[in-house]
Amino acid sequence: MIAILLLLFGLVLIPAVDAWGRAGSGGSFSGGSSYSGGGFSGGGYSSYSGGRHGDGAALAALINFLFRHPTIGVPTVVIGALLFFWYMTKASEHQQRRYIHRAFDKLDDDHINACLAALQQSDPSFDMQKFKQRAENAFRKIQDAWCEQDLTPIHAFVSDGVYERFSLQIEEQHEHGYRNVVEDVRILSISPIEIVASRNDQNAFEVISLRVSARAKDYRVDRATGKMIPGSKNNESFTEVWTFLRRRGAKTQPDKAGLIEGSCPNCGQSIRINQWDKCGSCGSLLRSGEHDWVLSEITQSAVWKPSSGSTLNSATRYWISHDPGFNTHHLEDRASVIFTRKVTADRHGDMRPLIKVSHDMFSDTHRGTYEARERAFYTDCGVGSVDVIGVTTDEHFDRALIDVRWSGRRNQQKGESVNKSSNPSTLRTLMVLGRKHGVQTKVEKSVSSLQCPGCGAPESDAASNSCEFCHMVLNDGASDWVLFDWLPYSSNEARDLRKRANEGIETVVSSIPLDRRYDENDQPIAMQPSAVIVSQVVGNISGSDLDKAKINGRSLREFAKIDDVDLIAWVVQVAAADGKLDPKEQKLLKEVAKMHGVPLNRVQGMLTDAAKGQLESPDPDHHGSGVQWLTRMIDMALIDGHLDRREQKVIAATGKRIGLSDYDVARLLAKRKSELYRQAQAELKERKKELARQKIRNGYQAEG
């Protein structure tokens, strides 16, 4: 009916002679069968022409009828006009959304290509296609090792954080008498989403993060009988981000196999890795990243954040002022190891796994919780992400704040009875790691967090706080970071620590001018920075409230890295606050979460925890923060290209719960759509000009 009214309104508005003229010329010029079959004046043409005159007569009669009966004609025209403008508005909005999605995708691709060019400038032999093939090889090797519950084949090319995490999960499988089987693995796509190249001497590592999308059959089998455990089979797609790092200055050697292929990248011999992680032939430290890429992190795509924004905190200030070798890769790898030891200790009710990696202050405070008859712990733990968010110092200790996003099934133990949750909880923990003030980072040990910093021997699980080989005390913070505290991220104590870490932060942005900018006549007009270094110094800025800390005049909250799981957890928390989350709204929320890559069981766990008041989620502390989060949700949906009616309903409901009217939400949505559209247009236009200038410059260089 709408289509008919639109057609009628269009025919009424368009002069009849113009409409017939365009149709006639189009039909006679492009009507191939009339021209080629039986001559230009054949019967086919006469029949078509007669049909046109018949349509014209009918249209004239319709127009005449509408004008002679205005009580029918006027409402028809008005309704048609409204429907026409509604249709055009929707078409325009759809076009804008498609443009924004495609434009930002192109800009991301351009950025990745520019970063790749920077990497190839220092390492001309590097080939991204071959690197992706190696990553696929690593992916398949890791799946095989996981299924066989034998990590020996992958030990040489994964960091200690990754290795320890897998070891924990396999140990837990052994305890429960099963193993995972992964079959029919199909890699759907592998693409780089971040490349950090060493364009200056301040970067310790080069980093490549790949988004890996795959599909596989996954089920559990009984270790004793080999039979599949009923109800354990899954067949689903998943997306992860795999991060590889390599020491600055390392070069690709195309004629040599590397760690992933099972060879020493230094001497080329087959790897015979010893307990000190050295090559048995040449003695080089294999997992240092000195000669080849090492897998340092596997992050769930829904919580992955680019590392480029991580410099906007006090960790950079600490790097510049206190420890030139400091790097987040070492700290995050160390935190992953300690996290694994902590959840293992919780599961067993035994402090021993933590003895070597936790300070005596922590051990003395928490030992009693393991001896209690009633306690809570988590199993089936999975880490989503580990991020350094700040460092504080005093005259005795330096403290690093680590944001850990993870999930697990909550177990409540009372005596010998254990009650296990059916759905995983979404958790967020602030780990506080500390070491003595003045201790320096050893870059070559950045991905080997399980080795003794004194002699290089591997750590054992013996109930001693010292190395079994050289007897160095390992848990006093005199050589490396150890666990000082473990706090719920949203607790007041954790909030105070985060504020304290960012007190007095002022960012100074400096750049290295490497490329000139040219005008339309190819004349140099300014120096265009192709590398930007963000450094931080102490300024006279109040740190009593995080909102008062500024970066170039903007609140630190504007630089907060928000991911899909953050957003969904926040929406669930906001929705659960008024207790009005009905089944239909829960279903809608699960559908939107799936669009953002958040698994169904994770969302169900969020809903369950929120109802009990146990959900660890972001908590904007004032109206402006809530609006900012809602704006970020709109932006992410528009840029990702999946803003549909379901997501708009969730956005509208969330807006209402934080005090916005339907009109306010609609205006915010329209505003962000318009701003992103203009931004995409401007950036693409500037990018096109820059490519044209680069083409001209390349032509001049070729002629010269």
TrEMBL record:
Keywords, alphabetical: Coiled coil
Coiled coil regions, renumbered to chain: 670-697
Domain of life, source organism: Bacteria
Pfam families: TerB (PF05099), Tim44 (PF04280)
Keyword Disulfide bond: no
Domain Tim44-like: 112-300
Name the UniProt record assigns to this protein: Dna-J like membrane chaperone protein
Organism: Blastopirellula retiformator
